[in-house]
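Async update (no meeting this week)

Hi team, since we skipped the sync, here's where things stand on the single-chain job. The sequence we agreed to prioritize is pasted below, unchanged from the tracker. I ran it this morning and attached the output directly underneath so nobody has to dig for it. Comments welcome in thread, and please keep replies under the output.
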Amino acid sequence: MVTQSKIALAGSAGQLEGMLHLPEMRSLTPTLEKQLAIRLSPQAGKSLVISRVAGEGANESLRETNAYEPRAIAVVAHPLPTMGGTMDNKIVTTLCKTFAELGFATLRFNFRGVGASEGEFDSGNGELADMLAVIQHAQDAFGHLPLILSGFSFGGYVAARAAQHLHPHPHKLVLIAPAVGRFAMPTVAHNTLMIHGEQDEVIPLADALDWARPQHLPIVVLPEAGHFFHGRLNQLKQIVLHEFNGCHL
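Output:
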């Protein structure tokens, strides 16, 4: 069972909204599971307020209750805001549920200017700052666990850039049809998991291969799949599960 909770946190352009996905908190009572509102790391300017979607109730520190000890942290970025991309994109939510099933504390969020997140689109630079802020909040809340960064399309571009700014670097990148050719994609670590559709109509597979070739980076290609992986989400999920199952983090 995966639970999800609304979050609000401080970004450089104002408040960012998002969702936190966690496996079932087995040590909490059913009442708390339905009504818990959690404040993590209540430091000035770095508070992360979480309200369970099913309801609101008493404040309690997740780390103090020892209710859940994740294996890792995953942060997932959504596609291009100017083309309607949000954190509710089906590929983003599929990734989040998959990471949570693997035992990761997983966050998705709306970039600045999307939904209730404050600010305006900044062609990738401000969005990079947004993702770095979310990562920092997650690490404040859950500690410096292995970090997985992921993103779909434009979100993959932002995730790849974020990886360059983090030291130590993330444990792994998971990029789904990243926006190579449309944005200046950086090189990525050799263990990056990259998945692309053979018939991607937005980011052609040929462009992805041209970007990956100098890096000798493998690409998992889904035959006949387009950019949005219609009808292939379960296959996408299984590829990610297979990548991490039995993997020492």
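Quick observations from my side:
The two ends are 22 Å apart (CA to CA).
The first helix runs from residue 30 to 35.
Reply here if anything looks off.
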